[in-house]
Amino acid sequence: MEPLNQKSIERVVSQKALQMGNSFPCQICVVGFLCGVCLTSLFLAALTSFGSFQFGPILFSTMSMANSSGNSTFPNDINMITRSDCHFKLKETERLWDSKSSRERDNEEKVSLLYSAWSAVLNESTSGGKEYLQKHGISGSSLPNAPHLENCKMKTELFEYLDKRTGTDVFPPWTTWKGSLQTFSVAAFNEQMQKLRHEAASEGAYPPWIAGSDEENYPMTRKVQRDLWIHQHPLNCSSPDVKFLLTDWERLPGFGIGAQIVGMTGLLAIAINEGRVLVTNYYNRAHHEGCKGSSRSSWSCYFFPETSLECRRRAFELIKSEDAWSKGIVTTKENYTTKHIWAGPTPRKWGLPWNYLQPTTDLNGTLLASHRKMDRRWWRAQAVRYLMRFPTEYTCNLMNEARHLSFGKLAAKVVLESLAGDWPKENSAKARSGDIDEYVWSSHKPWVPRPLLSMHVRMGDKACEMKVVGFEEYMQLAGRIRRHFPHLNSIWLSTEMQEVVDKTREYSHWNFYFTNVRRQVKSNMSMAEYEASLGRETSTNYPLVNFLMATDSDFYVGALGSSWSFLIDGMRNTGGKVMAGYLTVNKDRFW
């Protein structure tokens, strides 16, 4: 076989190259390579335009394997790609990014619009909500429901219905039916409903403010709450057998809101032990412009009153009677020592249920099975649950505002993702609500991002009463919960210290929510000074919002050495949260 000459070799190589060039994978590789060259050349050209670097021209013809005659060894379409499609691909990429950015901006604008529309409705009485909706072309019928907000007026009317007797019945209209279903009535159903109510009353119906099963609450919670309501609401307040304990809330400057509530649980214990109806009077924390009318300076600004209006009137009549004083029909806080109020005997009329509390509190990795004050922990939980059994419309509105500020935009995003049309352009009027909306679904709690962990970090002047630890230790406990529940990523944080809020930036893998209030910068400031700097209304409203958010959260991390955390623990343990557990950084100093 004759050896191949130079021409023959060139022909063979050219044919192989042509075959390779016609293959689709090769074309793609070349296109990618040449686009890279385009980008590189643009980058180098930009550098040379500043005169910092000098490069010779890069000739694409040398990369396209042209022969001496100027005819390319690649097909013409590949040459076209090398000369023009590199720029085309860059433009196409830019358009894709612009389109994506445009969609994101459009979605963000819709979220903001829906959030603002809900804000306008929420503040309709003061900010002209209807005008805002009209300005943006949104009708009330096309505005989606806000899942994180409650109908406070309707809720309060239901609570009023459930907190008073009908006629001569021993109990209010409590049944085994839940929420608004207890008010459901049709003509053909009325007789059966009345029968159901009478049967429930005769068998001892349980109060509707207790959630969860018996195993998910402290022992005997349902019975105790029913008995407390009956004790505090005698059938005839004017009967000579009915005695009263009339008292103001503690108002000494050093008493925080938690201490005030703890003191009142002690007075309720005295009233139960002595067979008296507890009647509360002046509540200094409700002495502000937010509490209107008769609720000003009264516990009833925030929660339903502890007794009926008839018993309140009777107690205030008797307080003026010397005969009632001499016979002991009426007493006040001044009749009892501080020790009796704060460390008096726990009511024993229900036996010793604290002896079998489920050990669900964790301290240093160990469950607290027992301690010296089990009875006090159980009783304070029952007492605070009763005193806070129903929030008022004012408190409901405070909670709506807090949820809207914290979760409103997230709720708007969730709602918009569920809509079929291009809201508000293509969104048709909402379908008319049916019975199931009004009587069944209305009983569901307002939406929050779940699971939600509540954390109360108490520092500042509390060091004189308990062991104070840093934010890092609280977050370590949060991490323990997350290891067992990896889908947990949201924390509702309550604290008086700004340094704690600042440290949340170090935990980017958590979503933190908290009330927008000025916090302490100096740790040596007393709580009394801090509250005075905020004013009466703010210093009362924001702690109660935090308290109720913690009560309803899925998990809780706190410090049992703090009265506030102690009370939150009690509300959770009488609100169906026993089995959620409680992780504490310390224990009560009296245990």
From TrEMBL:
GO terms for molecular function: alpha-(1->6)-fucosyltransferase activity. Keywords: Membrane, Transmembrane, Transmembrane helix. Gene3D superfamilies: 3.40.50.11350. The keyword Transcription regulation does not apply. It comes from the Eukaryota. The keyword Membrane applies. One of its GO terms (biological process) is protein N-linked glycosylation. The chain crosses the membrane at residues 28-53. This is Alpha-(1,6)-fucosyltransferase. It comes from Vigna unguiculata.
